[in-house]
C-alpha cells in the first residue's frame, strides 16, 4: 500500500455503507482524515455503522440530511448505488465538492496495476476468466470489486507483483478522477440502467470513463462489432485491441476456421471451449486478449478454457433432473442478457422470467423465443411477459408467486430433453434483495426436485 498523505486532516463524508462504504471509511480514518459516515438505515438496524462507531468514526444514520453540506466537507465518497439525483449529492455537486467512489481510493493507494472490466453484459464472466487464466499463468492476480473483495481492501494488501482484476459498473465509473487501469475492457454497450443515468448518452459516457485516464502505454480491449462502442472511445490515448466473433483480425483477438487467434497466432479451437453460447465467445475473446497482453501461455489459456463452465448465476448449470437440465441465469437483469442465454440452447426451453418493472416492454425477446415451449412468469412484470409470450405464439403461459414456486411449475410443463432456464430479463428488487438471492432460491428449489 502506498503511503499517501493527501487525506490527512481533511473532512470527508462517506455516503452509504455496505462493504465498500465500511472499508472506505476505515481506510480514510487510517489515513488521518476526519471521517463522517452517513447511511439511510437506522443505527439500531445497522451493525456496520455500529462497528465504525467503535473505531471512533462519526456516524449519522436514518436519512441523508441536506444540512450535512454545511459542515465543510472537502470530499464525498459515495456508495455507487446512491443516485446523483438525491438532494445531498446534487447539492454537493452544485457546491463544487468532489464526489468519488471507493474505486478511486483503491487506485490511489495501490502498488499493483489494475485490469478493469466493464460493459453492459459479460463483465463477471470476463473478469473471472481473466483471473483464472492469470492464476494458471502464475501472474499473482487478485480479484476485486463487484465479484470479489472490496477494491480498497485488496489494494491495501497488494504489491507490485500483483495484478488487480476488477469488474466495474457504470455507477462506479461515474465517480473516478484519476483511476487508470493498465488494461481496460469494454465487453459491449447496450441500453441499460437508464432509470439511474437518465439517458443513454450519460450511461455510455460513464462506461467510457474506464479509459479516460489511460495513456499510450496502456491498452483498451473493445468489441469491434459495435460501432457505437468504438465511437464512445474514439478519444482514448490507449492502444486499442479489438476482438471479433465474426471477422478475422490481424491484430487483436478473433476467430477463423474454428480457431481462436490472437494477433494471427492460433491459441485454441473453439470446439474445445467449455462455455456455451456466442455471447460467451465474446467473453472468451476479450479475456484471452487481456492475458496474452500479459504474456500468459496458450497452454495456461487452454487449461482454463476447456474446464471453466461458468460463473454462479450466469447461465450456470445446476442439475439434471429426470432428463431436464436446469440453468440458473439470474444475473440476466435485462433483455439483452436473456436473449443471449436463449441463443445458447438448441433444446426446447421452459423459461422462467419476470421481476422489477422499469417501464419497458419485452417484445425485443420475441425473435429469440422460437425454442421456448412454455413460460413461467412472476414479479411486477409478469403481465408484460405474458403479453410478449402470447405474441410469440407460446402455448403454455403460467403465472406464479415467485421463483421458488416457478421451479415445480416449470417441471410440470417440461419433458425429457428440455432445458429449464431461469433468465428473468429484469432486476430482482421487486421481490429479492439481489439477483444472487433470487438465483440461490432457484437452486434450492431445483435440488428439492432431486
TrEMBL record:
The keyword Cell division applies. One of its GO terms (biological process) is cell division. Pfam families: Mur_ligase_C, Mur_ligase_M, MurD-like_N. ATP binds at residues 119-125. It catalyses: UDP-N-acetyl-alpha-D-muramoyl-L-alanine + D-glutamate + ATP = UDP-N-acetyl-alpha-D-muramoyl-L-alanyl-D-glutamate + ADP + phosphate + H(+). Its EC number is 6.3.2.9. Cell wall formation. Catalyzes the addition of glutamate to the nucleotide precursor UDP-N-acetylmuramoyl-L-alanine (UMA). This is UDP-N-acetylmuramoylalanine--D-glutamate ligase.
